[in-house]
Every structure is written in C-alpha cells, then in structure tokens.
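anyone seen this seq b4? input:
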Amino acid sequence: MKIYIIDNGGQWTHREWRTVRDLGVDSTIVPNTVDADVLADADGIILSGGPASIESEISKLGNIKEYMHRYNYPVLGICVGAQFIAIDSGGRVSKALHAEYGKKIVNFTSKDGIFYNIPDSINAWENHNDEIKSISDDYIICAYSDTCRVQAFYHKNRDIFGVQFHPEVNNTEHGTTIFKNFIEKCRR
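predicted toks r here
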C-alpha cells in the first residue's frame, strides 16, 4: 500500500507523513507540482495544509486539481487541502470571521466515512485564517466548532474527506483514529 502526502507548504506535512508511516503504511511526501504520473501507484493521497490563502493564492496549490480528478483513489484534505476540495466542488472559501489558532472543541454531527470511532466532541488543533463557507451538495458537513461551521466533511459517493483542523498534531484528540480510518478506505 502506498499513500502520497501532497506538500502544500504546511508546517506539519512531515507529521502527516510520520503518522501514516507509524501506522505501517508506505508513504512519501511529494511537492504539489509533481507530475500526476508519479501518483499512478497511489492507493490514496493526503492534501496537506499550507499557508496559501485560497482566495488569492490558489496557484500555490500546484497540480492538486489534476491529482483529484485523474485517479479515483481516496483523498483526505487537511486545512487548505480541505478548502481546495470545497472550492473544486463549487463551494466557497473566504476569510474567517474569527481566525482559529490553538485548541478548539469540534463537534461531530455524523461519524460516517473516516469519522467513526470518534466521540461526539473532540479537542482539535486549529491554524487557519480562511474557512469553508459552503460546499457542494455532493458532500455531507459532519463537524463544526463554535466559530467555524465546516470543520469536517465527506463525499456522499466517493472516498473524499476533508478536515479544517489538524489531525496530525498531537493536541488533536483521536487524530490518529482519523488517519487509521482513512488508511482502511485506501485498502479497499
């Protein structure tokens, strides 16, 4: 099994890689500009977080649109990766009314997809100025915080998932469970 971590310049990309590796899966970090052919053997991809603002710097996200549409593997978007999935689906992302930094309580309204075996509420690590305002009807919004309406989502028919928070950071409760559940989707 092989999962590629697509590096969008996030400060915790190596933590995503290490978490997947520590769960026994071959994983490789690649820049978001790598040719899509490199990902032909992927069983899944993780779109890392990063400092780019979707509103003004979407070009800094390289080829991730092609990665999502060329192959039919599971995708997990984290932070700006999730925001890209929302934009790509026809949703809207813009500056957050309240930027989130540090621990926040994230509440789950549905625990399907990769969000099973997680309590109804968790402490999660946040680090974002932009947020998802809307997403296509093809997705289910399944988690929120008191200041961010879309903390997690999943596609109704495909294995595409997104989280605004950072499950790779130790301060996020049950973050490893989210990665384990994603890996299980990649095994199918």
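The mean pLDDT is 92. The chain has one domain: 2-187. kinda curious what u guys think
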